[in-house]
Amino acid sequence: MPLLRASGLVAGLGSGIVLTLGCPAAADPRPSAHDVAEARQQAQDRAHQLGKAEDDLTAAQTRQDDLAANAERLVEAYNGELVRLDNARTQYEQAAGRLQQAAGQYQQARSAAAADAARSYRDLVAFQPATAMLSASGGFGAYLQRASVLSHLGSERAATLQQLRDAQEVFGILRGQAAEAYESQKKTAEEVRVARDAARASVDQQVQETEKIRQQKIAISRRLDAARSRVERLRSARAQAQRSRVGLRAGLAVPGWAGSLASGRGGRAAQWALKQLGKPYVWAADGPSSFDCSGLTMRAWQRAGISLDHWTGTQWSSGPHVPVRDLRSGDLVFYGRLSSYPGTIHHVGIYIGRGLMVHAPQTGDVVRISSIWRHDLVGATRPR
């Protein structure tokens, strides 16, 4: 294992330092040719050990990056499932409302039919005896005509009741289907959440392992520095400190030209995103003190008056797709791969100009400015 190998290297360096730095002064301070050759070989051995530690660290960092990309994809997939779950809940509530409305209409029609029946019954009871009907104006024919009208009215009422009853049954079926869809979506969202949490745990574990290897590499490097001359050690420390300062500020300072970003909604969104530089990446966070990738872009465009979901899947379709050569400040730049399922797009940044974007890269990092040119760039969208 890389960790064990690195640990062995650290242990082995202790004796080397004694040989190099702990030798008592001899009467003749000039080293012999054998001493020089031995010291040179020892330095080469230490450099070889440091190279192996660097290889181990590179492999560990690669594993960490792969796990982080997969975890980010699952985070965005979970965000998408939450959006779909909310839609399924809305559809169920609408279906339940329609069923309740249909039941009320059926009950009102049924009450009206009962009232009609009661009136018809009272009218028939009030009819005159048959002899009186035959002698009355219109005679028996008028009576039959009146009875036919009453029967017709009853048939129309019955048909209306049947139609309302059928509608009520249909809405009941639709409500049942919506309830099943909602429960199914809840189950899917939970499964994706479990996968997301497992992926995040894998990333966290790999971050710890990578950090252990990094610390071991640092220890080896320090012991190697101790085996070199004081001049070389001081120069290396100075150069390393300078590189550290440059690396710390890389991507965290607002460029001078950013003050003249294009106006309009895109410019406002980009300007707001620049103000978030240095804030830590946190899974599924959407501010104000931390963000994930789609949480940052959602809040930036919210400041510009555009509402986006917290998911790269729907942000990808939030406006027209624009060619990369035509990018403007505020455009969203996406990474992953294109397919019929938008969840394969796992990262998004907000373009600021000159081939640069503001984005929340991954766990352990902060909101920063980076180049948009990556191998997994799939396209850009201009929200509206």
From TrEMBL:
Ranges of residues in domain NlpC/P60: 263-384
Pfam families in the record: NLPC_P60
Region (Disordered): 28-52
UniProt keyword annotation of Coiled coil present: yes
GO molecular function: cysteine-type peptidase activity
Entry-linked InterPro entries: NLP_P60_dom, Papain-like_cys_pep_sf, PG_Endopeptidase_C40
Annotated GO biological process: proteolysis
Keywords associated with the record: Coiled coil, Hydrolase, Protease, Thiol protease
Composition-biased stretches (Basic and acidic residues): 31-52
Keyword Protease: yes
Coiled coil: 68-105
Family: Belongs to the peptidase C40 family.
Official protein name in the record: NlpC/P60 domain-containing protein
